[in-house]
Specification:
Blueprint: E1 9-20, E2 23-33, H1 49-57, E3 64-71, E4 74-77, H2 83-89, H3 106-112, H4 117-121, H5 123-133, H6 135-139
Antiparallel strand pairs: 1-2, 1-3, 3-4
Bound molecules: adenosine-5'-triphosphate and magnesium ion (MG).
Magnesium ion binds near residues 49 and 50.
Amino acid sequence: MLKGHTLVNNLTLTNIDGGYGSVRVLHQLSITVGFGETVVLLGSNGNGKSTLMKCITGLVRPDSGEIVLEIDGERTDLVGKTPEEVVTAGISMVPEGRRLFPALPVEENLYLGAYRKQARDKIVDNLEFVYETFPRLQERRNLGIG
Ligand SMILES: Nc1ncnc2c1ncn2[C@@H]1O[C@H](COP(=O)(O)OP(=O)(O)OP(=O)(O)O)[C@@H](O)[C@H]1O
Ligand SMILES: [Mg+2]
């Protein structure tokens, strides 16, 4: 593993209330995503799954509650942060569907993920980390993905 990459993290939501004006969607929601865990949200349409993701990513501000991201012992309260600040803190949302650029090769698609200044500055290290983690991408780095 490369030095400097995040290895220990967790996300804790506590007593989140949130919604859209008078439409109350989340009621005292608490959930923890621990280190190495995969957590799945299941629910019927209109159940609040996307609203919860929007609260985490800063697109919807919860009315109350805490969202704390802990990375290598450093805690950041995400409530009130802009989506850009949430990304900088270490959270990214990958929407359903691939939303990739099929005309571009694998490596150029990866470059497009580094559009923020902090990411551009670390692009060489990050690319190495990605290829170490997913060697198949390195083998195919000059191939199109369409
Ligand atoms: N921008 C909005 N303004 C007002 N109400 C909204 C808005 N977006 C979602 N809602 C309402 O909030 C509730 C939760 O919707 P949400 O999109 O979070 O559900 P979901 O679980 O993601 O549903 P789906 O499975 O269809 O994706 C629903 O009653 C929905 O109508
Ligand atoms: Mg949804």
